[in-house]
Amino acid sequence: MAAGVITIAHRSGGPKADIIIGFEGRDTGFLAETEEEYAHCIGQVFSKPLAERQQLQRDARASVERRFSDEEFASRIWTRMLRPLLAQ
């Protein structure tokens, strides 16, 4: 997603919980479980006009950059390390 790939992932675990989630109310990728759902998602990607595919790519990229940036990671690690000390 960070590279601009339109992602179709399995509807479980990480992809469903915190990777392919909406960004500012718009889709950032597709989730599927069955062969039919995967085929439907692929059809959706190829049937979208170029401008919509490009918007999906921009939204996906912005979503992962916001949530998985070095700054966000450092902030979460820092908070997790300090939490036990602050609880004392």
> Spans of 5+ residues with little confidence (pLDDT < 50)?
none
Give a quick account of the main beta sheet: strands, pairing sense, barrel closure.
Answer: 2 strands, parallel
Structural class: mainly alpha
Strand order of the largest sheet: 1-2
List the secondary-structure elements in sequence, H or E: EHEHHH
Mean pLDDT: 89
**Count of all domains:** 1
Radius of gyration: 16 Å
Whole-Å distance between the termini? 40 Å
Number of helices: 4
Q: What is the total tally of β strands?
A: 2
* Percent strand: 5-15%
Q: How much helix, percentage-wise, in residues?
A: 55-70%
Rough outline: elongated
What would you say this structure looks like, in words?
The structure is a single chain. This protein is mainly alpha-helical. The chain has one domain. Helix content is 62%, strand content 7%. The protein has four helices and two strands; from the N terminus they run βαβααα. It has a two-stranded parallel ribbon with strand order 1-2. Strand 1 (8-10), helix 1 (13-19) and strand 2 form a beta-alpha-beta unit. The mean pLDDT is 89.
Features:
single chain; 88 residues; mainly alpha; two-stranded parallel ribbon; 4 helices; 62% helix; elongated
